[in-house]
Amino acid sequence: MNRIFGRGKAKGPPPNLTDCIGSVDSRAESVDKKIARLDAELMKYKDQMKKMRDGPSKNMVKQKAMRVLKQKRMYESQRDNLMQQSFNMEQTNYSIQSLKDTKTTVDAMKIGLKDMKKAYKNVKIDQIEDLQDQLEDMMEDANDIQEALGRSYGTPDIDEDDLEAELDALGDELLMDEDSSYLDEASTAPSIPEGLPGDKSTNRDGVLVDEFGLPQIPAT
Prior knowledge:
By secondary structure, the protein is mainly alpha-helical.
């Protein structure tokens, strides 16, 4: 059968807007190049006409310039149409790509929502609240234990007013019991020796003392 009817051509990939935009832009660039060549030709004819006198030769050059100008106008119209087509396809392509991105975002959000629902199935709010209550109770028990460990043992209950009165009386007793006999002993202590060693001096009682303030022993 294939020999009689032949094989059908394999279908290629469907056209897409990106390729179409590239093709139209390429055509528009080609038309721009043709317009640039016509502009150069028009400038040449214009310079020739400036140097020529009125007559048949100048009119012939003018006819050529008019023909080139008509071609330029035609190419400019084609270029404008191609540029408008490219712009329209770009806008359409942008809208399609935006819709694709939106769909991708929505699909990702749906997957995220499913994952969140699965995760929340393993989390029980009541269990969390019970756990918080247990932790709070344990902290209170720990504080009670610390207070119990720091409690004083065998300390009688004493009135603070009695303690203050006893403290004031204790200060008075200390002043009364203060022994001042050491001051009397200090007053009767030998005076500090003055002068050089070997000098003869006496103390307050008129007794000869040596350089150290000690009474001298009389020579026998």
